[in-house]
Amino acid sequence: MTRLEQQLNLLMELDKLKAVLRRTRVRCADGRFENSAEHSWHVAMMALLLQEHANEPVDIAKVVKMLLLHDMVEIDAGDTFVYDTAAYETQQQTELEAAKRLFGMLPDDQGEALFSVWREFEAAESAEARFAKALDRLIPMLLNYHNDGQSWIENNVSKQQVMQVNQRIEKGSQVLWDKAKLLIEEATENGWLRN
């Protein structure tokens, strides 16, 4: 198989991400569930628009790359609801196996380079990864807030759960964490989160 054929094969495999549904609904009139491809695009746009709010200077191209790559593994692993603690126990290994398969479809040099970026995101140790993780946590919260707490209500989520899961935003952006805390308080006052 040629290099181009390998690259095109992965691109066609990535189309499957459009069929992976998340628990958050989009804001458009039909109120359907967001898919993982839409989520990846939306959070990459957040990076471009909100870069100035990162705690540290970041290479925004790398942040965008991380955000476009981070959920590819959901093609095999599916989306894990962030408040489902039982599912999180097996998620890491399942996603690692999926990453190996997907990045393994590419020519070795390209596959390893992108797999390295994916692993950096997962480790959340670099400034870019911390900011990317912050954005990845913030966008579902924003959608929930602007959809009157939809997935929080449907899944009986508490204020404590939202605070605990989303506190990682602070590691990437104090400004965005401060905003998130205000949204959590308002959502609790509105009855969208259990107190």
From TrEMBL:
PANTHER family attached to this UniProt entry: 5'-DEOXYNUCLEOTIDASE HDDC2
Subunit relationships: Homodimer.
InterPro entries in the record: HD/PDEase_dom (IPR003607), HD_domain (IPR006674), YfbR/HDDC2 (IPR039356)
EC number(s) from the headed UniProt entry: 3.1.3.89
Keywords, alphabetical: Hydrolase, Metal-binding
Cofactor (UniProt): Co(2+); Mn(2+)
Provenance organism: Vibrio barjaei
Catalytic reaction equation(s): a 2'-deoxyribonucleoside 5'-phosphate + H2O = a 2'-deoxyribonucleoside + phosphate
Any GO MF annotation of the entry: hydrolase activity
The HD/PDEase domain, residue ranges: 32-150
Protein name according to UniProt: 5'-deoxynucleotidase
